[in-house]
Amino acid sequence: MKATVEKLDKHQVLLEIEVEAPRVQKALDQAYRRLVKQVNIPGFRKGKAPRFILERYIGKEPIYNEAAEIVIPPAYEEAVAEHKLEPIDRPEVEIVKVEEGEPLIFKARVEVKPEVHLGTYKGLEVERPEVRVTEEDIDAYLKNLQERNATLKIIEDEPAAVGDIVSIDFKGTVDGEPYPGLEGNNYPLELGSGTFVPGFEEQLVGARVNEERTVNVTFPADYHQEDLAGKEAIFQVTIRGIKRKELAPLDDEFAKDVSECETLAELRQDIRRRLEERRRQEIDAAVRRAVVEKAVAAATVDLPAVMVKRRIETRIRELERNLQLRKITLEEFLNATGKNMDELEQDFRPEAEKDVKTELVLEAIARAENIEATEEELRDEIEKMARITRQDPAELQQNLDYLSFLKYDIMIKKTIDFLVEHSVAVPPREGGDRETGESRETGETAATEG
Asked: Is the CB of residue 260 less than 8 Å from the CB of residue 92?
């Protein structure tokens, strides 16, 4: 087989492939055997008519077309591998010549991954702060443990206070009309949690069981439901019950109840160890993100539209799956946000472009540094996955799609490891908490606005 490559533009190439005559003849014979079984020819049992009879009956063209379908896909794959091309779309194929006893010639026009011009990716400076856990961090963690293990006491004759959990019936109106979703019965709400719209919970402090209150709020201008953003709402609220948390004292007995530690001092040490490990993981993750972002920013690449489009489609499918878990359709989501599909795609475009560029740059670094998955690494990962999924490792080994994904995943992780190993750690800049560049909450996160 012969194959030549002509570069048409920055993303597209034209392959001209010539398949040798003996291989074509073999495909013609195979095509005849396939087609003769599909055609009823008078005077012959099905599948038994000679080839020249079949050709008289259906013509030569269907046989040639069938032979081309047999020959072209593997010949195309061989040419792609020979010239080390990385197609990103299906090829447009044009048959130039197919004749008995002659080579088959065809052309394949296909988009390929673009050339990546790498910038500096070794010796990148990244902030790596020290792992620090303060006594205040440990106190906050213990406070959270107290809260999670608190008992609830029913309050009947006292007003609700911040920190109490009230059961409420509520119904909201906007512009004087009931609004779908702004209602509930026996809804548990912790006063001061910030779960509801700002101002809602504060107006229930001091209320008693069975008391009715009118609550006036204004939805934030950046509220996630655009049709409610900035709108005023009135809620009729009835307090159905009040429960108050009773916290156990922080002593050795508490330590025994919530852990395997015998004393509060041991528990504090265990918490320190856990928080230090969590911080270490957060710092490692932040360093990995930072070094990848710097390597990607230093590189230049012309992003193919088809790769960006597919990444956008992937993000939309992920959104649909998440919405389905909440029993919301994509159409309902679009109506609620006041967007159409074109606007949704544009919202996803910046992150999709970032994802595609990151993928291409990491692949280019892996090629430049000869980074790939080893057989031992593949075997270890397959055995690990087999233990998790309780599958036979041999079954996973035979799944070619899974193996391809696994090889790629290992290669990318090793490439990021390489960037981190060849980076230069620098102390954080002055000002602010630089441990991870993110929230340093030690307890559970507060609920989002409802």
From this structure: no
Which residue has better confidence, 449 or 219?
219
pLDDT tens digits, 59-104: 888 999 999 999 999 999 999 999 999 999 999 999 998 888 899 9
SS (H, E, C) the chain: CEEEEEECCCCEEEEEEEECHHHHHHHHHHHHHHHHCCCCCCCCCCCCCCHHHHHHHHCCHHHHHHHHHHHHHHHHHHHHHHCCCCECCCCEEEEEECCCCCCEEEEEEEEECCCCECCCCCCCEEECCCCCCCHHHHHHHHHHHHHHCCEEEEECCCCCCCCCEEEEEEEEEECCEEEEEEEEEEEEEECCCCCCCCCCHHHHCCCCCCCEEEEEEECCCCCCCCCCCCCEEEEEEEEEEEEEEECCCCCHHHHHHHCCCCCHHHHHHHHHHHHHHHHHHHHHHHHHHHHHHHHHHHCECCCCHHHHHHHHHHHHHHHHHHHHHCCCCHHHHHHHHCCCHHHHHHHHHHHHHHHHHHHHHHHHHHHHCCCCCCHHHHHHHHHHHHHHHCCCHHHHHHCHHHHHHHHHHHHHHHHHHHHHHCCEEECCCCCCCCCCCCCCCCCCCCCCCC
> What's the rounded Cα separation, in Å, for the pair 291 and 288?
5
Q: Which amino acid is at 229?
A: A
| Cα dist from 426 to 133, 307, 350, whole Å | 20, 35, 30
| Contact indicator for 320, 361 with CB cutoff of 8 Å | no
> pTM for this structure?
0.73
Say how many residues make up the chain: 450
Residue 276: its pLDDT value, please? Answer: 96
d(CA 298, CA 291): 11
What whole-number distance in Å separates Cα of residue 157 and Cα of residue 66? 87
d(CA 351, CA 311) in angstroms, rounded, equals 9
Name the residue with higher pLDDT: 218 or 441.
Answer: 218
CA angle 298, 114, 368 (to 5 degrees): 60
Q: Is 96 strand, coil or helix?
A: strand
Domains belonging to the chain, first-starting first, are 2-111 (3.30.70.1050), 151-246 (3.10.50.40), 262-426 (1.10.3120.10)
Q: What is the pLDDT of residues 200-235, one digit of tens each?
A: 999 999 999 999 999 999 999 988 887 888 999 999
Helix (H, G, I), strand (E, B) or coil at 169: strand
